[in-house]
Amino acid sequence: MTTTTPVLDDHQYRADVSSAKAAARAYYDTDTELMSDTSYDELLAGIAAYEAANPDSVIEHGLFSDVAAGTSTGGTVTYDVPMLSLDKVTDLADIEAFAERIAAAGGTISIEPKFDGMAFNARYDNGTLVQVSTRGDGVTGEDLTTNVLKLDITGLPRTIAETGTVNVRGELLMTRDDFDHSNTNRVASGKPAFANPRNATAGSVRKNDLQYGVKLTFVAFDAVGLDAAQLAEAGFTLSATIPTGDSGETDTVARVLAFGAYRKSDAFPYPTDGIVLKAIEPGVRDELGTTSRAPRWATAYKYEADTAITTVRDIIEGVGRTGNISYTAIYDPVLVDGSTISRATLHNPTIIAALGVGIGSTVEVYKANDIIPRVGRVTENGPDVTVYEPSDVSPSGAPLDQSGAIWRSTDPADSIGALISYAGSRDALDIDGFSDAIADALVSGEEPLVNDLGDLFTLQYQQLASLSLGTTDKGTKRFLGGKTAEKILANIEAAMQQPLNRVITALGIRKSGRTFGRRLASHFHTMDALLAATEQDFATSGVDGVGPERAALFYEGFQRNRGVIEKLRAAGVNLGSEPEEAAEGAAPKPLEGMKVVVTGAMTGPLAARSRNEVNELIEAMGGKSSGSVSKATSLLVCGEPGSSKWAKANDLGVRIVTPEEFAELIGL
Q1: pLDDT value at position 128?
Q2: Contacts of residue 626, Cβ cutoff 8 Å, sequence gap at least 6
Q3: What is the average pLDDT across 534-563?
Q4: What CATH number matches the domain at 595-665, 3.90.110.10, 3.40.50.10190, 3.30.930.10, 1.20.120.80?
Q5: CA 476 – CA 453 distance, rounded (Å)
Q6: What is the mean pLDDT of residues 487-516?
C-alpha cells in the first residue's frame, strides 16, 4: 500500500500532534475510537517528516519516544523492571535485518502473535492475586485491581501454588468469541457497539459499574522465576509461539508470512494484525539492552491489511434506542478477506472529520483485526464529491447533545423505531416474530400506527395484516399478511403478562436495561411506586448500583413516560403488584436470602433460557442475582469450570453447583 506523506506547516504540525495525542489517549484508555489505525499511522508519518525537515521547530510530545505514545502519566504502582513498549519494523527486509542482528549476538528468535489489548502486570503475594496494574508510563502503572477482579477473565487465576512475590506480565484482551459476546451485551444495554476489541478492553476495565456482561482473556508473556510450563500449570493462558523451522533469517521471514495467513483462520481465536519477534536468550537480551522506551532485543511487525478500493455512495445517520447517533458509510460492494462488504460504521463525527470522507469519496476499506469493516482512508476526493457535514439536529429538529465523542438526540421521539424494536426483543417483552423491519414500518409514514410503546398494545388485526413492508425484488408491494399478523397479535397479548421488570426494560430509560429492570422491580414492586418515587427516593433506595446520576435519569425517565405507562395500564399490561405476605408456616422459597451468581453456558433444564431468564428465575425463587463473586455470594451456578468466577468462588469457599444441580435445587 503506497501513501503520500503530507507536507505540513508549523500550525498544521502542532494541530496534528494534538490530534495524534488525543487519538492515542482514546486508544489506550477508553472505549471510544477517535481515529482509524491507518489515519493515525499517516498522521505520525506527516509529523515525523516535518520534524526531520524542521529540527529546530520540534515540540515535546512523546509520540515516538515514550511508552504508550506519551499519553499516560503513570500511576501509583512502581515497577522495579520497567514495562516497555516495542519498536516496529515496517517490511520484510527490516525483519531480515533484525534477525541478522540477533544472530550476530549469538541469539535465536521466538515469534509470537502481537495481541491488540492492554499490557498488565499481575502481582501475587504468597500465591494470592493482590494487584493488577496497567503498563502506564512504563515505570509506574495504574492500579485497576478492584475493577479487574469484578470481570469474567479467562487465564488469570486468583491463586497460584507459589510463595513470595510473583509478577506475571501479559496482555488483557478479547478473543473473537469474547468480543462477540461482549458486543452483543453492550448493544442490548442500549450503548453503541464497541469500535474494536482494544477499545472494548480498555473501556471495560475502567468502568467502575459496568452494566452489561463482558468476557476477557489474560495472555501471560513471562514471569520472574516461572517458566512457560509452570505458568501453564498455574492456569495462565500462554501466548502461542509460532513454530520454529530451520535456522536463518529466510526461515524467520517464512514463519512470519505463514502466520500471516494462519491468523485469519477460525483455528486462531485472537484478533491480531501483527507479530512480535524476540531474542530468546537472557544473555543476548542483556547484551543488546533497552532504550528508554523499548528493548533492542525485540520488535513488532504489522501485516499489511487486505484492502479494497471503492466509492462511498451515502452516509446514513441512525438513532439508537437511547438516542445515540450512529453514522454508517454505504459503498459499492467489494471483496475483502473472503467476504463481500458494502457498509462500515464511521462511529462518530471526529472520525468522519479526520478521514475527510464525503459522498462520492474514493476510499480504501479493510477489516479491523480481520473482523470489523472499516474505512481506512480517503484515496481521492474529486470535484464531484459532496462534503459530508453531520447534522447538528435530530430527525425531529431538536438540537443534539454534542458534549461527548458520541452525539445524542435529546428528543425521545427520534428513537421510537429502535425503542419499539428493542421492546419486542427476547430479554424485554419477548414478542416472537417482531423484527426491526416491522417496528420501522409501524412508526413510519405520515400517520404512523405506533407513536410510543403504549400504542403497540392497541394494534388491530387489519392494521397489521395490511402493514406495508416495502417492495419485492420484482417491484410489487409487500405486506405483512394475515398469518403473520395473527401470530404477532397473539404474542403481543402474551407480552401483556410479562413481569414488571421486563416492562421497565421495554420503556428504554437511559442506563436501565435488563439488570436494573430486575433490581427496580424487586425493590419498588409496582409501577405506581416507581412513578411516585422522587429523585431522592431513587438515590437512597439502596438498590445496588444506583447513585446520583442514575437516580436523576430514572426519575426523569419514569416521569417522562407517565403518558405511555397510562396507555399500558389501560391496555391491561402487568404493572406489578405488592408481594403477598407468606402464609404462617409456609416453607421459604428455595433461594430465600441467597445471593446467586451465574457464569458460563447453561445446560440441562436451563439450556434454553437466556442469562436474563435465569436471573429472573433466581429472583422469583427468593434470591438476589449478582454479576460478580464476593464473600457475600451464597451460590455460584457454573457452566464453565476453571473460569475466573469459578476460581474465585473456590478461593472464598462459595458453594458451586452445575446448571443441572441448580435446576434440581429450585425444583425445575
Answers
A1: 93
A2: 544, 595, 596, 597, 633
A3: 91
A4: 3.40.50.10190
A5: 31
A6: 91
Dihedral angle over CA of 607, 182, 543, 324, nearest 10 = -130
Q: Annotated catalytic sites, by residue?
A: 114
End-to-end CA distance of the chain: 60
Model pLDDT for residues 566-616, shown as the tens digit of each residue = 999 999 999 999 877 755 666 788 898 899 998 887 888 888 888 888 888
Query: What are φ and ψ of residue 632, in 5° steps?
Result: -85, -10
Enumerate the β-bridge partners of residue 526.
576
Distance of CA 216 to the CA centre of its chain: 10
Residue 220: enclosing H or E segment and its boundaries? Answer: strand 215-223
The DSSP secondary structure of 199-246, one letter per residue, reads HHHHHHHT-SS--S--EEEEEEEEETTB-HHHHHHHTPEEPPPPPP-S
β-strand pairing of 88-89 with 298-302: parallel
Cα dist from 334 to 76, 340, 359, 380, whole Å: 49, 5, 17, 17
Residue, of 475 and 529, whose pLDDT is higher: 529
Cα(648)–Cα(78) distance, integer angstroms: 26
- Residues 161-214: tens digit of each pLDDT: 888 899 999 999 998 888 888 887 887 666 777 767 888 888 888 887 777 888
Question: Quick one: fold of 412-495?
Answer: DNA polymerase; domain 1 (1.10.150)
Residue 3 pLDDT > 60, yes or no?
no
Give the Å distances, CA to CA, from 93 to 100, 104, 274, 521. 11, 16, 16, 63
CA separation for the pair 391, 395 (Å, rounded) = 9
Which helix H or strand E contains 313, and what residues bound it? strand 308-319
Q: What is the CATH number of domain 77-302?
A: 3.30.470.30
pLDDT score, position 172: 92
Q: What is the dotted CATH code of the domain comprising 307-410?
A: 2.40.50.140
Rounded Cα gap, residues 284 and 52, in angstroms: 32
CA distance 9 to 39: 19
| DSSP structure string for 91-120 | SHHHHHHHHHHHHHTT--EEEEEEE-SEEE
Nearest residue to 364 (alpha-carbon basis) of 386, 350, 381:
381
C-alpha cell recorded at residue 56: 529546530
DSSP-derived 3-state class of residue 16: helix
Angle (CA) 517-522-523 rounded to 5° is 105
Phi, psi of 429 (to 5 degrees): -85, -10
Q: 364, 385, 386: which is closest to 373 by C-alpha?
A: 364
- Burial of 588 (C-beta count, 10 Å sphere; 0-12/13-18/19+): exposed
Matching residue, cell 417492495: 471
CATH class of domain segment(s) 500-571 = mainly alpha
Do 159 and 127 touch, CB atoms closer than 8 A? Answer: yes
More confident residue, 379 or 245: 379
- Residue 467: left (phi > 0), alpha (psi -120 to 50), or beta? beta
* Interval 136-142 mean pLDDT: 83
The b-or-e profile of 619-628 (16+ CB within 10 A means b, else e) is bebebbbbbe
Residues 584 and 581: their CA atoms lie apart, in Å, by 9
**3-state SS, residue 421:** helix
Which residues neighbour 620 within 8 Å (Cβ) at sequence distance 6 or greater? none
CA gyration radius, the chain:
28
